[in-house]
From TrEMBL:
Keywords: Cell outer membrane, Coiled coil, Membrane, Transmembrane, Transmembrane beta strand, Transport
Recorded GO MF terms: efflux transmembrane transporter activity; porin activity
PANTHER family: OUTER MEMBRANE PROTEIN TOLC
Entries under Gene3D superfamilies matching the protein: Outer membrane efflux proteins (OEP)
Protein source organism: Paramaledivibacter caminithermalis (strain DSM 15212 / CIP 107654 / DViRD3) (Clostridium caminithermale)
SUPFAM superfamilies, sorted: Outer membrane efflux proteins (OEP) (SSF56954)
Keyword Transmembrane: yes
Family: Belongs to the outer membrane factor (OMF) (TC 1.B.17) family.
Domain of life: Bacteria
Stretches of the chain forming a coiled coil according to its record: 57-84, 110-141
Annotated localization: Cell outer membrane
Protein name as it appears in the record: Outer membrane protein TolC
GO cellular component, one term: cell outer membrane
Cross-referenced Pfam families: OEP (PF02321)
Length: 389
């Protein structure tokens, strides 16, 4: 009897395991085709979507709320500190260490949390914007390669007819067929690139990987009015998180050195050590400003360069289209050979691909420039040392 019951239990365990496995795998799409009617998204809607449910945003929000709690504690501690020292003598070591140091670190803590939250938002937005733009470009490249297949097919048909009429050698037909095979392979590769870009955007949005996406926006050149370079740098120096952190580090080091001066003479190790720390913090602050200025200038140049590349790309496409048209006409009347048309066709394809990349690069460069004059995308630690000597 016991053996019989054990057998039944074993069968039930196996069955439940199979059911569990089946349920666990029920959501896996056994296809590389995207599912359902699709989610229609503009770029702004995609950003709104990620802001609602992002764990990263929630963590940054929690850190900000904690900083607000800590700020209230700091205000309470500051009131107690002011009662414990002589507030008429603000230049004493006791006041500097008990009150001034607390004021500096307490105010910075909340301000830093606010900027970190903004930087986290900007970084997430930048990730979504880049993924969205890259999918748009992948779709554009797919369409460019599709048109190239159609042109190649048309040329192949013309070549076969010419061969049937005895106007060209068999080798030209073979060459045109090889070109068609390559064009079709390039088109399939472009389709796979779209799938990869779509899956990546789905992951970033928190969707199922094989969710169909329909993008409302287009990848196109949008004119961006640049500030004067001086204005852009001024905004960056006033806004960037890295500058604020370096400035706090410098002010903290200066205050600690001031406290040390009250306690130790110039020939002591403690004095010399704190003086070096203060000098280093000052250099770090100056270097931070130089680095941010250089970054803004480089991003500024990058946007200008990408604008020129788009203008050159548009002209290249225009000229390549005309060159292909003339080459096809010449080939039709027997005044040129197949390779002339193929060269013109390749030139047009490369021009279109180049223009598409230039537009993508330009849009990404604009985003990068805009971020570089705001708070930036980098969160800064608030764990700087706060102890006076």
């Amino acid at each position: 009897m016991k053996k019989y019951i054990s057998s039944i239990i074993l069968v039930l365990v196996v069955c439940l395991s199979l059911v569990g496995t089946t349920l666990g795998e029920s959501n896996i799409v056994d296809s590389m085709d995207f599912q359902d009617k699709g989610v229609s998204l503009s770029l702004s809607e995609a950003i709104d979507e990620i802001m609602k449910d992002s764990p990263t945003i929630k963590k940054a929000q929690f850190d900000l709320e904690q900083a607000e709690v800590d700020y209230d504690k700091y205000r309470s501690a500051l009131r107690k500190a002011r009662k414990s020292v002589n507030t008429d003598k603000k230049d004493t070591a006791s006041y500097l260490q008990s009150v001034s140091l607390l004021e500096l670190t307490g105010e910075y803590g909340l301000d830093n949390a606010k900027r970190n939250y903004e930087a986290t938002v900007e970084k997430l937005k930048a990730d979504i914007e880049e993924a969205y733009y890259r999918l748009l470009q992948a779709q554009q490249l797919e369409e460019i390669n599709k048109v190239n297949v159609e042109i190649t097919k048309d040329l192949h048909e013309k070549t076969k007819k010419k061969f049937e009429l005895g106007l060209i050698a068999k080798q030209e037909v073979i060459n045109s067929e090889l070109s068609l095979i390559k064009a079709e392979n390039d088109y399939k590769s472009a389709q796979n690139t779209v799938k990869n870009a779509k899956m990546l955007l789905n992951v970033k949005l928190g969707n199922d990987i094989m969710t169909e996406l329909e993008l409302k926006d287009e990848l196109k050149y949008r004119e961006f009015k640049l500030d004067s370079i001086a204005d852009a740098i001024s905004k960056a120096l006033a806004n960037r998180n890295e500058i604020k952190a370096a400035e706090f580090g410098y002010e903290l080091a200066k205050l600690n050195f001031k406290i040390t001066e009250k306690k130790y003479t110039g020939n002591t190790y403690a004095y010399k050590e704190q003086k070096v720390k203060s000098e280093k913090a000052e250099k770090d602050f100056k270097d931070a400003k130089k680095n941010i200025e250089m970054e803004v200038r480089m991003n500024y140049l990058d946007v200008l360069q990408k604008q020129e590349e788009i203008k050159a790309g548009e002209k290249s496409v225009e000229l390549a289209e005309e060159a292909l048209r003339l080459s096809q006409l010449s080939y039709d009347v027997g005044m040129s050979v197949l390779t002339d048309v193929q060269k013109a066709q390749t030139a047009l394809l490369q021009a279109k691909l180049g223009l598409s990349k230039a537009i993508l690069d330009y849009n990404l460069a604009v985003l990068k420039f805009e971020d570089s004059i705001g708070v930036g995308r980098t969160s800064m630690s608030s764990g700087a040392g706060t102890q006076g000597m």
